[in-house]
Amino acid sequence: MLEENDNEDDEMVFYSAPAEAEAGKWYMISSWIKTEGINTDTMWYPTNVIPDRDNNRIGVCFFFHKSPIETSWNLVGGDQFFYIDQRRGHEDSDWTLYAAVAQAPEEAAGVSMRARYTSFPTGKTWWDDFAIQEIIPLAVSVDDPSQQLPVIATDYRLSNNYPNPFNPTTVIEYTVPKAGKVNIAVYDVLGRKVRTLVNQNLMPGTYNVVWDGTDDAGERVTTGVYFYQMHTQNAVITKKMTFIK
Q1: Beta carbons of 14 and 33 less than 8 angstroms apart
Q2: Are 160 and 180 in contact (CB under 8 A)?
Q3: What is the extent of the structural domain holding 37?
Q4: Which DSSP symbol is given to 161?
């Protein structure tokens, strides 16, 4: 458990033991996190990995480094970050799995991760099941068959919405491999929730949900980029779509 009671310009970090890594391979870095009374604001980072250190955030920092991995701090690629959800209303949260995916750069021999409070976060966090796992990407085509994108094999599936861009409606298909609670919601580029599309217990199967470009109040959203996220007990998957008028 990490706890910070003041907002002085300091930092709190818990280091993991380094794990071996190989240049060019993909790794999933993850941890289960629970919070109590943490600082909040309106911003959220609906992203996988970013290089930016936000001084008001709690999250995971990781980095690849050269050999010998037990003693060398000769980093390759610099520090990378993914942050927990600190939007208002999320001061207290139950155990949530946070995970990100990164490819080891050239010369990488190891990878380390840190539970990290940057300069000014406050509150309590519990951390469990730190993990660094090698994963195998699958190559799929999107629109142009010559353009290959890596995606991560997982039992849960969240498909690209169609059509995209769209007006007035778009369809989102998703697959649930086992019975359990499923939440799918739409967010704007500032991380504000726009619309809850699914929030229920489902049996295994493949489902479709339609978004008509309105928010939870029934008002039409503005033209722009939106993120839709599938959140289950064992997976968090986020994708992007564009609404046009």
Answers
A1: no
A2: no
A3: 2-135
A4: P
Quick check: 228 and 213 in contact, CB under 8 A? no
For residues 74 and 9, membership in a common domain is answered with: yes
As a whole number of angstroms, the distance between CA 71 and CA 126 comes to: 27
Q: Tell me: do 6 and 121 sit in the same domain.
A: yes
- CA distances to 2, 58, 87, 98, 229 from 127, in Å: 8, 12, 19, 10, 23
Q: What is the pTM of this model?
A: 0.56
Whether residue 145 is contained in a domain is answered as: no
**How does pLDDT run across 198-243, given as a tens digit for each residue?**
999 998 888 999 999 999 999 999 999 999 998 887 778 888 899 9
CA 190 distance to own-chain centroid: 15
Domain boundary residue among 100, 135, 170? 135
| 41 shares its domain with 162 | no
Q: Are residues 69 and 108 in the same domain?
A: yes
Q: How far apart are CA 111 and CA 132, in angstroms?
A: 8
Residue 194 to residue 191: CA distance in whole angstroms? 9
Residue 105 contacts residue 77 (beta carbons within 8 Å): yes
Alpha-carbon distance of 18 to 70, in angstroms, equals 7
Amino acid at residue number 97: L
Dump pLDDT digits (tens) for 177-198.
888 899 999 998 888 889 999 9
